[in-house]
Amino acid sequence: MAVRYLSLKELLISSMASAKDATLKEPHKTNAESTQSKPDLLYGINDNPPWYLSILLAFQHYLTMIGAIVSIPFILTPALCMSDEDPNRGLIISTMVFITGIVTYFQATWGVRLPIVQGGTISFLVPTLAILSLPQWKCPPASELSAMNENERQELWQIRMRELSGAIAASAMVQVILGYTGLVGKILRFVTPLTIVPTVSLVGLTLFEHAAKTASKQWGIAVGTTAMLTLFSQIMSNVSIPMPVYRKGQGIEFRPFLLFRLFPVLLTIIIMWGLCGILTATNVFGEGHPSRTDVRLKVLTSAKWFYIPYPGQFGSPSFTLSGSLGMLAGVLACTVESLSYYPTVSQMAGAQPPPLHAINRGIGTEGLGTVLAGLWGAGNGTNTFGENVGAIGVTKIGSRRVIQWAAFIMVLQGVIGKFGAIFILIPDSVVGGIFCVMFGMIIAFGLSTLQYIDLRSSRNLYILGLSIFFPMVSCKWIQEHPGAIDTGNRTLDSTLTVLLGTTILVGGVLGCLLDNIIPGSPAERGLIEWANQMPLSSDYVNDGRSTDYDFPYGMNALKRWKWTHYVPFLPTYKLQTDNQ
Q1: Per residue in 510-568, pLDDT tens?
Q2: Which residue of 194, 234, 426, 530 lies most exposed, with the fewest beta carbons within 10 A?
Q3: Residues 405, 55: contact at Cβ < 8 Å?
Q4: Residue 517 in domain
Q5: Crossing angle of helices 356-376/150-180, nearest 10°?
Q6: What distance in Å separates the CA atoms of residue 511 and residue 446, rounded to the nearest whole number?
Q7: Of residues 386, 338, 327, the one with CA closest to residue 365
Q8: Domain range holding 198?
C-alpha cells in the first residue's frame, strides 16, 4: 500500500478533481458567475460540493459555531437566578443552537444569501445585564433562594426569561423595519467610525468583571486556558497536521490539515477540560470545587434525550417599555457588525459585491431571527458569527450549500437535549480563560475601526476618550444606584435606568453625537475610507443575468414585474439594451 505526502497545492487540485464527477449534474455556471470566483477558492458561493463532502465541511462550521455560542449561558444563567445544577441550562443552549440553525438556513437561502452563520452574540449580554440589574429583577439573597422549593426556583428564573424574551422580540422589530424598508442605509450614514469604536469596544470592556469572576474560580486553569488558546490560534496557526486519507486505486495519502487554525477554541476546551477531569479523579480538586468536572453532573443526567424547543416554552413573553428600549442597544450593535461582515464574506466566497437590496434583506432577516430567538426563549439575539467568517478564509470554501447543511446539523443537535447539557459541564475556570481572549478580541475588533480616522487629530482623540471612559463611569454608577432616578413614574424610571445603564448605548450615542457636531473634515473623520468599506450606496440595476444574490425560486416572475424596483429588498432589473 503506497504512502506519500501531498503538498497544499496538490491537495487543492486533487480535492477539486475528486469532486468533479459528483458535480457533473449540477447546474451549469454562467460566465458571469465563474469569473467572480477567486482562483484559490476550493468551492465558490454557487458551487455545490458532493453531499458527503458538504456534510463534513458543514460539521466543521458547526464545531466552530459551538465554540463561540457555548460561553453565553455561563453569563446569562446566573443573572437569571438559575442554580448551577438546573437542567434547564442545557435546554437554553439547545434552544440557542436550534434557532441558530433555522435562522442560518433562511439567511443563506432567502436573506443576504451569503455563506454566513447567524447565532447568539455577546453583544446582547450588555443590555441584558442592565435590564436584570433593575431592583425588581435582582436575584434574592442566598438564604431566600435556599428556602425555595423546585417550582418556586423555576418560576424565579422563568419570569426573568419572559421579560428578556419580550424585550428581545420587540426591539428586533426595529431591525426588521430598518432592513425591509431600506432605512438602514439612510440611518447608518450617520454611524461613523467614531460611533463604531465605543459601541463595539464597550461590549468587551463592560463584561471584564464577569470574565474575572469566572476565571477566579481557579486561576491556574484559567491562565493555562488562555495560554493554550494563544498557542493554538496564533503561534501554531500555520502548522499543518498530516491527515491520512484513503483513495481508491492510490492507497493512503497524507494531506496537510490546519487543525490549530480551524479549531483553536475547541481544542483548548477539550484539553483543559480533560486536565480538570484528571485533577477531579485524583481529588486534587476537592468535593465542591468549582473546577471539578462533576460539579454539575446533575444537569446531564436530568436532561431529556429529545426535546423540540417551541415558542413560549418558558411562558408567554412579557413586554415592557424599559426592556424593549434597553435591548435596542444590542440590536443596533449587531446591525453595524453584520454590515461590516457582508463585503468581507462576499470577497472570501468569490461573490459579487453585495447590492443594497441584499444588504437590506440580510439585516431584515437577522431581525426576524432575533424575533424568533426572543419568542423561543433563547435569552439572546442573533448576529453574524465572525468565527465562521474566519473559517471561510482559512478553508477556501465559500459554498452556500455547505452552510445550508450546517444549518441542518444545528437544528438536529438542538433537539438532542443531552448534547446541549454536555457543554454545561465545562468548568467555570476554563470558560473564564476563554472569556479573557474572547472579550479582548471584541475590544480589539472595535478598536480596529480606528484605522479609518486620523489619530493625530486632537478632535478625534477627545471624542474617542470621552465616549469610551464616560459610559464606564456613569453606567456603572447607575447600575449600583438603581433608585437614583426618581421622576415619580415607575415605568419612566425603569426605562431611563436601563438606557443610561447600558454602556454600549451611551457610548455609541455620545460618539455619534460628538462626531457629527464637532467640526472636522471628511478625511479627518475617516468618512472617505469608511464609505469604501461600507457598501450602503452600492445599489445597482442588473441587466437580466443571474447574480449571486438571486432568489433560488421565482426570479423569472420578478424579472417581468416592473414594480419590484420600489421594493427595497427585491432584486431590480432593467430591460436589455440593443448592444447587449
Answers
A1: 999 999 999 999 999 999 888 776 655 544 555 555 578 888 887 777 777 777 777 88
A2: 234
A3: yes
A4: yes
A5: 160
A6: 13
A7: 338
A8: 51-533
